[in-house]
Design brief:
- By secondary structure, the chain is α+β, with helices and mostly antiparallel strands.
- The chain has 3 domains: about 280 residues, Rossmann fold, CATH 3.40.50.620; about 200 residues, Isoleucyl-tRNA Synthetase, Domain 1; about 100 residues, Beta Barrel (OB fold (Dihydrolipoamide Acetyltransferase, E2P)).
- The chain contains 20 helices and 26 strands.
- The strands form 6 sheets. Strands 17, 18, 19, 20, 21, 24, 25 and 26 form an 8-stranded antiparallel sheet that branches. A 6-stranded parallel sheet has the order 3-2-1-12-13-7, with helices on both faces.
- β19 and β20 form a beta hairpin.
- The longest helix has about 30 residues.
- It binds ligand ME8.
Length: about 625
């Protein structure tokens, strides 16, 4: 039994392995992590699942492009996802891959069950198909003859396939959603699904002929076909819990909540509940849907390199700051815009000024005026009572907000409390109280209150800013795992040791701290060089180049040999980036090179130019284009 008596099972989407993780994936996974940590803090029994979606056209095509077998490709990218989540401190309990036997077995079991029950039939279907989405579009959904998601032309395909009798569940699903107002939330997404259900629901094609696509799970009753990727992928949420008769399934499935982005609302809001119903399994408790991040107003997609670079900001500003920014900036359910400037603004205002200063000021005051030991509080005044009362309110607000995945509201409430404390310090002026021995009791009341507020913050911030919260608790000698139940106001024991915290979030003064430099040149201190003239800059011939081939330079740990096209000519470029990029990942990229450098020979290979890359925080990133340009285009 858990301390709270509650059980909580949370899933993220399983991400496609056709590209490496980007900001959007990180957002979903980080907020899921914050939620899982919050529920654990509250004493719930928690299971937190993430993973990768590894079958289907998209993956087969990406593998073919990289010149490797789909499984090898999936292994590589799945490992990148895992490593990224580990680096971001994601506390997932399980990571499922759809190519694992434990998943494939359950998919086949469910298919067989549905086939035996007559829920699946063989039929013919012709329609407009999007290879990017791996699904057919109905006339109503098509915009200007194109896929509404990819804006690419659709292809008419006619083929025989197996169909799941989804239409028969339309009425049931409608009633289910109507009777459970918070089944799909926030409400705008519930309304969207209700909108879909106003139109007749089609049956779902759940197979693909192997002749067209072999990278999938074979149908157990006809091995000329593989399972449609969505039918395969959705089942991960069940298969990860093992057999339906098993302990883990029985413990967690009744409490399942999914977290997804709005792009995959329909499969989760329509297909999945119908599939579960047909298989005789209960449907989810809640489907929690978030909005989309955009960059500079544009739509974000995996093909845009800068999406990946946004993720690199975690290294530059730290995991906590990145977590804070994305949770605070985006109202759950709505779209938001990502920019480094906005991140830096929040970093300085909310983290460095509000929280960082509070922690430094409070612990310094306790160190200076109470020799680093929490004093017994003297008589309390209305000011201390206001803080205690507000704390109780904040806890309630955080709890209510977290029930609804409203991270921005939870953080807003905590920051109101932080604001009150900073004003309290200014108002009480403990440094003045310390000058008058008669005011010792007042001073002790203030110092105790500050210590107690920090102790409580060190607990409640743990899901959101794990590292900063740990440091706050450490400064107040609070060891062991934090528990929400311990942040009842007034539990701080006088006599507790307190030490000064070093600044939790030193202000960011120079947002261009990472700098950009051609690979191989010595690192520069930002702002340390003499100014360059326009003429000097104009002497550099910078060009867009497309990587045609990339190979490791034998016997070198660092060097990669690139063959690049400048449109009219090809060049060989040797670059010291092998520790940061697998050669295959560079092929096809459009990069920027300095085209008028004297050739240099490195490890016996002549390099006819130099590529541009940036580095910072132990990471290196090759410059790519934000928008397509032909090879050879001038960069100025
Ligand atoms: O759809 N803003 O995988 P996927 C916010 N394999 N979140 C974003 C985002 C953005 N711009 N872009 C992506 C798939 N996401 C399927 C899922 S589940 C059974 C199968 C996040 O790699 C968001 O969570 O395309 C979105 O739902 C998910 O990544 C899609 O990831």
């Amino acid at each position: 039994m858990s301390a709270s008596g509650r059980t909580f099972y949370l899933t993220t989407p399983i991400y496609y392995v056709n590209a490496t993780p980007h900001l959007g994936h990180a957002y979903t996974t980080i907020i899921a992590d914050a939620m899982a940590r919050y529920r654990r803090l509250a004493g719930d029994r928690v299971w937190f699942l993430t993973g990768t979606d590894e079958h289907g056209d998209k993956i087969a095509q990406a593998a073919a492009k990289a010149g490797v077998a789909p499984q090898a490709y999936a292994d590589r990218i799945a490992a990148v996802f895992r490593a990224t989540w580990d680096r971001l401190g994601i506390t997932y309990d399980d990571f499922i891959r759809t190519t694992e036997p434990r998943h494939q077995g359950i998919v086949q079991q469910i298919l067989q069950k549905l086939w035996d029950a007559g829920e699946i039939y063989f039929g013919k279907y012709g329609g407009q198909y999007c290879f990017g989405c791996e699904r057919f579009y109905t006339d109503k959904e098509i915009i200007d003859g194109k896929c509404p998601d990819h804006q690419t032309p659709l292809t008419y395909i006619e083929e025989e396939n197996y169909f799941f009798k989804m239409s028969k569940y339309q009425e049931w699903l409608l009633r289910e959603i109507e009777s459970r107002p918070d089944l799909i939330r926030p409400e705008r997404y519930r309304n969207e699904i209700l909108g879909f259900l106003r139109e007749p629901l089609q049956d779902l094609s759940i197979s693909r002929p192997k002749s067209r696509l072999s990278w999938g799970i074979p149908l157990p009753f006809d091995d000329r076909f593989v399972t449609y990727v969505w039918f395969d992928a959705l089942i991960n949420y069940v298969s990860a819990l093992g057999e339906v008769s098993g302990e883990r399934y029985r413990t967690f499935w009744p409490h399942v909540q999914h977290l997804i982005g709005k792009d995959i609302l329909k499969p989760h809001g329509v297909y999945w509940p119908c599939m579960l119903k047909a298989a005789g399994l209960p449907i989810y408790r809640h489907l929690n849907v978030h909005g989309y991040w955009g960059l500079g107003g544009g739509k974000m997609s995996k093909s845009i390199g800068n999406v990946v670079e946004a993720l690199a900001l975690t290294e530059k500003y730290g995991n906590d700051a990145f977590r804070y920014f994305i949770m605070r900036e985006m109202t759950f359910g709505l779209d938001a815009n990502f920019s480094e400037e906005a991140l830096v603004a929040r970093f300085n205002a909310d983290l460095a000024n509000d929280l960082g200063n509070l922690a430094s000021r409070a612990t310094t005051l306790i160190a200076n005026f109470a020799k680093g030991t929490i004093p017994a509080p003297g008589p309390l005044t209305a000011a201390e009572e206001e803080i205690g009362t507000m704390w109780a309110r904040v806890r309630g607000e955080v709890d209510a907000a977290m029930e609804e995945f409203a991270f921005q509201r939870a953080l807003g409430a905590i920051w109101e409390f932080i604001g009150l404390l900073n004003r309290y310090i200014d108002g009480q002026q403990p440094w003045t109280l310390a000058k008058d021995a008669a005011k010792r009791g007042r001073l002790d009341a203030v110092l105790y209150t500050l210590g107690e507020a920090l102790r409580c913050l060190g607990i409640i911030l743990a899901p959101f800013l794990p590292e900063a919260a740990r440091r706050i608790r450490g400064a107040l000698d609070q060891t062991g795992d934090p528990h929400l139940a311990d942040c009842e106001w007034g539990r701080l024991v006088p006599g507790t040791r307190a030490e000064k915290v070093t600044p939790l979030f030193p202000r960011v003064e120079d947002k261009a701290a990472a700098g950009l430099a051609p690979v191989g040149s010595p690192p520069r201190e930002a702002g340390s060089d003499a100014l360059a003239t326009m003429d000097e800059f104009a002497r550099l011939d910078l060009r867009v180049a497309q990587v045609i081939a990339a190979d490791a330079v034998p016997k070198s740990r660092k060097l990669v040999k690139l063959t690049v096209s400048l449109g009219a000519e090809q060049r060989t470029i040797v670059a010291g980036i092998a520790e940061h990029y697998a050669p295959a990942d560079l092929v096809g990229k459009k990069i920027v090179i300095v085209a008028n450098l004297e050739p240099a020979t490195l490890m016996g290979v002549e390099s006819q130019g130099m590529l541009l890359a940036g580095s910072g925080g132990g990471r290196l990133a090759v410059l790519t284009l934000d928008r397509d340009l032909p090879p050879g285009a001038r960069v100025q």
